[in-house]
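// run 5 | inverse folding | seed 20
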């Protein structure tokens, strides 16, 4: 009993390594023809090479819903849970316990097998569990992370045709007991933009958005899943770009409010399919067409002292104000800040 209590107390001091463990965040959901569609959940990488595989969200069960393709191709859902600063120091040589809660709905017509695994680049731990309609099971696995581990991945996979898979939650932490209620190792929301006024260096958990169009490498898979190629892709490497906010002012999304009269003409910095009144699109600088009035009386003569009356103003000719002799843009008073995006 004391040994179990010690294990529990140790686990209670850890952090959940799985980001979005209960599938609360779906940045890439969208409304099409007044209907809400969910894409892959934030932080997770989904792949099914079959033609009719699909991932979404089931509101009644609050679960990630996977509809496996008809063939026997492999479906995977995984997350690189080692993506945080100094993760090797934290994880190498440690025991990791992970839990997945999976359901096959009663109304389903198909059985399926699920493989649940942890992999550290050197070794893995996995279990294959059979589900028939109506089954809801908790799968528990343990991995002793190798001292030379290069990553840590938690993964579900299945080759069962047409399986309907409800993934309620997946969580993992250091220790022999996995606890669902632990705070996440990611403190905040991946993809969150932050700004700083006292430094030009992004914190370890964030990337600068003022370094030009930098690429996201394989070290940032969870952020990749959130950005979802929104700012374009380097065709040579396949890596998505981060947005370059250097020198830009921010403006709140119009969202059909009518305050931004040119919202439908907005353009993307990289992805041509994202345009119009959408988050992350840009507008070039422009001046609103206007007139500068000239304050004079056109029914009076201009007197010039002892020289007599001056020539009458020609009202048919055009008149321009003088150009501003300084500056290269029109701008309000401003302060330069470092913009960053959270990746861990």
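// decoded
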């Amino acid at each position: 009993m004391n040994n179990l209590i010690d294990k529990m107390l140790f686990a209670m001091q850890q952090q959940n390594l799985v980001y979005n463990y209960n599938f609360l965040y779906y940045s890439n959901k969208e409304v099409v023809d007044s209907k809400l569609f969910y894409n892959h959940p934030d932080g997770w990488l989904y792949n099914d090479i079959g033609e009719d595989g699909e991932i979404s969200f089931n509101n009644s069960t609050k679960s990630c819903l996977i509809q496996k393709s008809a063939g026997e191709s492999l479906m995977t859902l995984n997350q690189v849970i080692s993506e945080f600063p100094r993760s090797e120091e934290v994880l190498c040589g440690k025991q990791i316990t992970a839990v997945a809660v999976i359901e096959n709905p009663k109304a389903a017509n198909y059985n399926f097998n699920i493989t649940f695994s942890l992999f550290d680049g050197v070794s893995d731990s996995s279990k294959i569990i059979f589900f028939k309609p109506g089954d809801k099971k908790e799968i528990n696995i343990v991995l002793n992370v190798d001292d030379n581990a290069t990553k840590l991945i938690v993964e579900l996979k299945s080759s069962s045709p047409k399986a309907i898979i409800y993934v309620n939650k997946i969580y993992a932490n250091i220790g022999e007991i996995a606890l669902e209620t632990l705070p996440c190792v990611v403190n905040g929301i991946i993809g969150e933009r932050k700004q700083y006024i006292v430094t030009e260096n992004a914190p370890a958990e964030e990337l600068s958005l003022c370094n030009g169009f930098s690429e996201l490498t394989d070290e940032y898979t969870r952020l990749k899943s959130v950005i979802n190629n929104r700012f374009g892709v380097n065709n040579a490497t396949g890596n998505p770009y981060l947005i370059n906010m250097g020198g830009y002012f921010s403006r709140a999304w119009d969202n059909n409010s009518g305050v931004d009269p040119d919202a439908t003409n907005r353009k993307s910095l990289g992805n041509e399919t994202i345009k119009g009144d959408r988050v992350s699109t840009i507008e070039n600088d422009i001046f609103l067409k206007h007139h500068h009035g000239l304050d004079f009386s056109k029914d009076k003569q201009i007197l010039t002292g002892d020289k007599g009356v001056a020539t009458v103003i020609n009202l048919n000719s055009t008149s321009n104000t003088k150009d501003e002799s300084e500056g290269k843009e029109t701008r309000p008073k401003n302060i330069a800040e470092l913009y960053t995006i959270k990746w861990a």
